[in-house]
Amino acid sequence: MADEIMLLDWWSSMFGMRVRIALVEKGLKYESREEDLNNKSPLLLEMNPVHTKIPVLIHNGKPICESPIIVEYIDEVWKDKSPLLPTDPYQRAHARFWADYIDNKIFQLGGKIWTRKGEDQEAAKKELMECLKILEGELGEKPFFGGENFGFVDVSLVTFSCWFYAYESFGNFSIEAECPKLIAWTKRCLQKSSVSSSLPDPLKIHDFVVQLRKKFGIE
Amino acid sequence: MANSSVADQEGQVMLLGFWFSPFVKRVEWALKFKGIEYDFVEEDSTNKSALLLNSNPIHKRVPVLIHSGNPIAESLVIIEYIDETWKQSPILPEEPYERAMARFWASFIEQKVTEPTRAALFSQGEQQEKKVKEIKEAMEVVEGEAKAKLNDKTLFFGGGNGVGYVDIVLGWTCNWMETIEEVGGFKVLDPESQPQFHKWMANFREVPFIKPTLEPKEKLVEFFRMVRQDRLGLVANE
What we know:
The complex is a heterodimer. Chain A is α+β, with helices and mostly antiparallel strands. Chain A has helices at 14-25, 42-47, 67-77, 89-115, 118-139, 152-158, 161-171, 175-178, 180-190, 193-196, 202-215, and strands at residues 5-9, 31-34, 56-59, 62-65. Chain A has a four-stranded mixed beta sheet with strand order 2-1-3-4, covered by helices on one side. In chain A, strand 1, helix 1 and strand 2 (31-34) form a beta-alpha-beta unit. By secondary structure, chain B is α+β, with helices and mostly antiparallel strands. The chains are: A alpha+beta, B alpha+beta. The A-B interface holds A 50-51, 59, 62, 64-66, 69-70, 72-73, 76-77, 87-90, 92-94, 96-97, 100-101, 134 and B 1-2, 4-5, 8, 58, 67, 70, 72-74, 76-78, 80-81, 84-85, 96-97, 99-100, 103-104, 107-108, 141.
């Protein structure tokens, strides 16, 4: 029986993008459904009653929620192609540690940069740059966080790269100036079709943030 | 490469921790569940060792598991590492969808119960009220899940009579929740509206390898009262 895969998604979500990348890496066909986050579908509410958030992967009718969990699930079910996690337990732990670090830092800090002003914004900028520098250090001289191959940590972080331009514009700073190796890594990732086909244009994200700021009265 | 985990099972296992930390206790439960021998190193929270700071330079906190000299940090990451390295007494389910469900509930517990409880411990007034409301809402979801999954034959989320990942992740509530309620001056536990959860807590406390590890409540209350006062800068007699 052919697998039925549906992804409940939202175009600008870094978390949804992670799942898109994983699905393409594994060569999987899937139906993508764009949710209206201001008017969530009955399907979303049924499939993720606890959080009512996207992304939700629905595999043969069964829902999986939370992007890192979805990506691990995809990696475990379709394990014969493009493995995203290494096989060695210590290296897997290492990858999960960094994915967890990314999840706890980047989204909140990035969000503060385009929603706050003054001291709050400055503090968020400083902390974001510290985190990105730490991540750049972890990358080191490797082509990818996964080593020779694109892996779990790469998937977790690269989806924020299309939001960098927005962060930089509203925060008035340059990520490339302080983390050139990290930006080089994002360009390397974008050469992969799984990444380039899953990430929207940073200019589109920027315009979207302009609209959100108007909507929330941030000026 | 394929045989590395077999060889590694013989390597020395060290756990850096604090006696009072629920995050550390979880890792101990995972180790004990699998019958793994380990050395516990009691860290001083006011004076962290060079070993701890070097093993976890990013977060500088416990628990840290050091296995054959290799450090692993973050309690949930450590538990999955333990489960993947030592194959006896599996903690996570085998089947990918069941694993995803176990991880989902672990993540929910951390985000919606554990973190807000920590925040409620270290706050007061309106800020604390907000966190308490969050915890209560999350406990409704936990009770719902307990009602759906547990019964007279299935005592634990791990299925049947055996504890599993979700039990180990949620397990801190059976001891620390009452402590933090008392110290923080709020209530989120309610036997009337959370009967299944309370049954689960009672059963968890009695699990033979769990029971001896639970610290006496008075000891925890005294310690956390001091920690809360310290953090909030409260006068001792308040």
